[in-house]
Amino acid sequence: MLSLQILANGLVLGGLYACIAAGFSLVWGVLNIINILHGSFIVLGGYLAFFAYVKLGIHPFASVLIAAPLFFALGYALQRAVINRMIAAPVLLTLSLTFGLDLMLSNGMLFAFTADFKKLNLDPPLGVLNLGGIVLPVDRLFAMGLALLLTALLYLVLSRSRIGRAIVAVRMDREAAALMGVNVKRIYAVTFGLGALMAGASGPLLAMIFPISPLSGPVYLGKAFVICVLGGLGSVPGAMIGGLALGVVESFGALWFGPEHAITLSFTLLILMLLFRPTGLLGRTGYS
Amino acid sequence: MKRTALIAAILFAAVALLPLAGDAYWLRLGTTMLMYGVLAMAWNFIGGMAGYPSFASAAFFGLGAYSGAVAQKYGVPMPLAWALAATLAVLFAALLGLALLRLRGHYFAIASLVVAEVLRELVNSATDLTGGGMGLNLPVPHDATIANQSAFFYYAMLALAIVTFAAMLWTTHSRLGFGLRCIQQNESAADMLGVNTTLYKVGAFVLSGAFVGAAGAIYASWVHYIEPPDVFDVMYSIKAIVMVLLGGAGSIFGPLIGAALFLSLEELVWRNYLQVHTGVLGLLIVLLVLFLPKGVFSLRLPRKARP
What we know:
The complex is a heterodimer.
Chain A: H1 2-31, H2 38-56, H3 60-81, H4 91-113, E1 128-131, E2 134-137, H5 138-160, H6 162-172, H7 174-179, H8 184-207, H9 217-231, H10 236-257, H11 262-276
Antiparallel strand pairs in A: 1-2
Helix pairs in contact in A: 1-5, 1-8, 1-9, 1-10, 2-3, 2-4, 2-8, 2-9, 3-8, 5-6, 5-8, 6-8, 9-10, 9-11
Chain B: H1 2-16, H2 18-21, H3 24-49, H4 57-73, H5 78-100, H6 105-125, H7 127-130, E1 136-137, H8 146-172, H9 175-185, H10 187-192, H11 197-223, E2 225-226, H12 228-231, H13 234-247, H14 254-272, H15 277-291
Antiparallel strand pairs in B: 1-2
């Protein structure tokens, strides 16, 4: 019974993790850029939901809809104005660039919102669901459902829409896509916008479960790394599998080794995966 | 090589005179500058010469700081504890390098980045040995005045900087340096032409780890108190990279010049904009990457139009 409960906790957490990582993985896969800003985007999305709820009474689920276009615009503009200049630069430079941007954003949030933890508590709370002995908080369930829905939407956009196919084409072969008339710089900006959208939209969902602090950006970022490597880079199904896997591993790891070793466990997993199975659990590089 | 060595000797001799003139503030700044110089030069082995985007400096620094501190806690004399820390860093770098240097590009960057996080958590949870999150106090020598001590640590850091510089100078002109530059340009081709790439890369990584580890140990003795988030701070990795970029990657004096420039900027920002200093630092990094990716010496004054 206990392990079933742990498994359920892990899967609920994993659904949220999938949503965190899907956008990060997309940007990494298509642009070949590790977006260090991703974690701070999530935190900023969380703050948006917090203040929308406390000041205006907007439900966090509704905040997702507000965050999505805002973060898409932010990501699109940032890519057009700054990151597109460095798109073909060596890893070291692009990493330093997004790291510098992240320092600015996280310092800005620290300045504006202070380092105090903020917690979004729904009033009235949604209660818990008891499934034959397995207890699940309803808000978490809804958050997971929405996270999975967002991830599925991203998958649909990439596999069905015209712009999605163009993104996949650029990921497969940039030169060939450009020759076919795809505007690569615009596709890069759209992709970065989508990545920011996924981060900003998962912020409100995470804010319902975890306290919000400007310092938790790196924690989310670390999880996104691990998930990308677990599931394989640049594919939405990969992020989904990786996210669920990490959620389950963290839950059982906390039971067996103690919650204080969660980071050690997941990063050790990351290094082992990189060494022995760099293509991820799915074993192939996905294109959608 | 001889000319470079001569210039460096004059430079270091001038730097050695600082304790005669400066007060405690300048000595602290000078010690920090030398430490930054060591971090930058050490990163240059793996990052500048071999072209591997290593973010492992923070791991080596924290490892050195903690092994030196724990050794001193158990009564090992200070210089011996530093040597021990450097040796441990060498072993660690060799093992880590054998595993991680098989990765390339982003994957290597990420893997080297998380090593510091793992070490920090391990140190955090090994409370008996390291004091965990409470940090670790180092013994303060009783028979020395504050001024003597600051001068002592200044000279210790200076000695380390000189050794690091000498190692870098030697490497540049040796087979190792040649091999590393081949690896940077085209690793597969270098491998095919008979360069033992694994050995060379691990060599560069070990050199990098040794000096950073020693710097960490001296730092721990200098500040007398360390805690995991302080010495395993990812900023050490970032700063090392930024300093080398600032001074020009792969060159001999680049890392030192970068360190001096970076420290001046950092001190100015820190003094004037305490609340937002990391943000301003971030802005500096962004501007540097966007406009001066080859270092300050790529700046050219507009040439006069010729008749």
